[in-house]
Amino acid sequence: MGQQTSADRQQSSNKRTALVLLSIALVFFVGIIVRRWLFGG
């Protein structure tokens, strides 16, 4: 059972890491679009 809880903890950690990376990518993407929209004409 110890391995299952460890695996669940790993999955939770992976999900949190994926969420962080996704939010960073989203902010970066939106920033580029806004910059092109403001300065690109």
Q: Hey, roughly how much beta strand do the residues contain?
A: under 5%
Domains, number: 1
- Distance, first to last CA: 60 Å
Q: Mean of the pLDDT scores?
A: 90
Note poorly predicted spans: none
Biggest sheet architecture? none
The percent of residues in helical segments reads over 70%
Query: Helix/strand/pairing class, anyone?
Result: mainly alpha
Radius of gyration: 18 Å
Helix and strand topology:
Layout: H1 2-39
Structural write-up:
- This protein has 41 residues and is mostly helical.
- The protein has one domain.
- Helices cover 93% and strands 0% of the residues.
- The protein contains one helix and no strands.
- The protein has one helix spanning 2-39.
- The protein is rod-shaped and about 55 Å long.
- The mean pLDDT is 90.
Q: What key attributes describe this structure?
A:
93% helix
Question: Summary?
Answer:
This protein is mainly alpha-helical and 41 residues long. Helices cover 93% and strands 0% of the residues. The longest helix is centred in the middle third of the chain and has 38 residues, at 2-39.
